[in-house]
């Protein structure tokens, strides 16, 4: 079913790849972004890759008047909500900015959706809501106990969306709890371009490999894992984009609010990721072990069986593909977007 879709944060890393996926599926798309973490060049490249029209407006989800104009002009059937702040460390040092954007911004967006009678949302959540694993693999029934403001704001937004759905049975939403998105479009035209120093492992590896940074710091090698380094569930951004397409299809018949993990169901350690990247890029990635970071867990990976059962989705790309496509992006765009 072809639909009109509003994507918040559509000029960002995951938003741009999902916009491309939505256009490929034949949907009509409008993207909004305040360009705090996004790049207008990404929008231009999505248009070029898709050969499809993609509307784009610069604006903030906290700006109700801006949202009302967008909803009035475009009249979307559904919203895919990415817009938000996303760095764990920054959320600790500047928590109020995270509550303002991630919680208050989501509230303003839901109110604008009400005004426009738009009743369906796919929400970009995070596995950080689980906190320290009580058991593995992490399924959606796992207790939530986020250990930082970023995770708490994601959980609060989920709860707000659940209450929004419960208040009107014609509303429906899916919160996708991502594990660790990595990779890029195979063309190398769009990818992850973090502002400042990367807070995630894969873009840091890529910037070291391309010579933008001198060395990678590996935080701890004394965890109870295969090689002593932290183990995480990495998922290709193109698989993640497909998950949003599947969730959008699911909403056409769903009611209420659902939680769905999006991951591969298997972990890779820091050293395994480094070795895969070196193998696929043929580049050098010097690294140095430094003390653990406070709050880091040893192992985290998803039970993604609900996504398979409910969405008909499962990850297709392996670790080598994630590294290959990241290198295609970084090697063509050493300094990111112009």
How would you describe the overall organization of this protein?
With 338 residues, the protein is of the alpha/beta class. The protein has a domain at 4-185 and 234-265 and 301-315: NAD(P)-binding Rossmann-like Domain (Rossmann fold, 3-Layer(aba) Sandwich). Helices cover 41% and strands 18% of the residues. It is built from eleven helices and 14 strands. The strands form four sheets. It has a seven-stranded parallel beta sheet with strand order 3-2-1-4-5-6-11, with helices on both faces. A three-stranded mixed beta sheet has the order 12-9-14. Strands 7-10 form a two-stranded parallel ribbon. Helix 2 links the parallel strand 2 and strand 3. Helix 1 packs parallel to helix 2.
Descriptors:
18% strand, three-stranded mixed sheet, Rossmann fold, alpha/beta, 14 strands, seven-stranded parallel sheet, 338 residues
């Amino acid at each position: 079913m072809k639909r009109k879709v509003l994507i918040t944060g559509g000029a960002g890393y995951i938003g741009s790849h999902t916009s491309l996926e939505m256009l490929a599926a034949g949907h009509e798309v409008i993207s909004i972004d305040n360009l705090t973490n996004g790049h207008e060049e990404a929008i231009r490249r999505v248009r070029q890759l898709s050969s499809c029209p993609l509307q784009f407006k610069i604006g903030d989800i906290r700006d109700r008047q801006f949202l009302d104009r967008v909803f009035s002009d475009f009249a979307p059937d559904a919203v895919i909500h990415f817009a938000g702040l996303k760095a764990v460390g920054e959320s600790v040092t500047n928590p109020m900015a995270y509550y303002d954007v991630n919680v208050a911004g989501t509230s303003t967006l839901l109110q604008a959706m009400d005004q426009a009678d738009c009743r369906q949302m796919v929400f970009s959540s995070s596995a950080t809501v689980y906190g320290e694993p009580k058991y593995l693999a992490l399924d959606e029934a796992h207790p939530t106990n986020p250990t930082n403001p970023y995770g708490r704001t994601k959980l609060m937004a989920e709860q707000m969306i659940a209450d929004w759905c419960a208040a009107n049975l014609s509303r429906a939403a899916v919160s996708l709890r991502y594990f660790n998105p990595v990779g890029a479009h195979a063309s190398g035209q769009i990818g992850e371009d973090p502002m400042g120093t990367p807070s995630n492992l894969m873009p840091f590896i890529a910037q070291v490999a391309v010579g933008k940074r001198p060395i990678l710091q590996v935080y701890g090698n004394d965890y109870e894992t295969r090689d002593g380094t932290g183990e995480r569930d990495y998922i290709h951004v193109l698989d993640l984009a497909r998950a949003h397409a599947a969730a959008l299809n699911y909403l056409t018949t769903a009611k209420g609010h659902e939680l769905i993990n999006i991951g591969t169901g298997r972990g890779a350690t820091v050293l395994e990721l480094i070795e895969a990247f070196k193998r696929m890029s043929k580049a050098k990635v010097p690294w140095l072990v430094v003390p653990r970071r406070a709050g880091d867990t040893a192992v985290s990976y998803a039970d993604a069986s609900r996504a398979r059962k409910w969405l008909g989705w499962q990850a297709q790309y392996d670790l080598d593909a994630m590294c290959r496509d990241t290198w295609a992006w970084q090697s063509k765009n050493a300094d990111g977007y112009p």
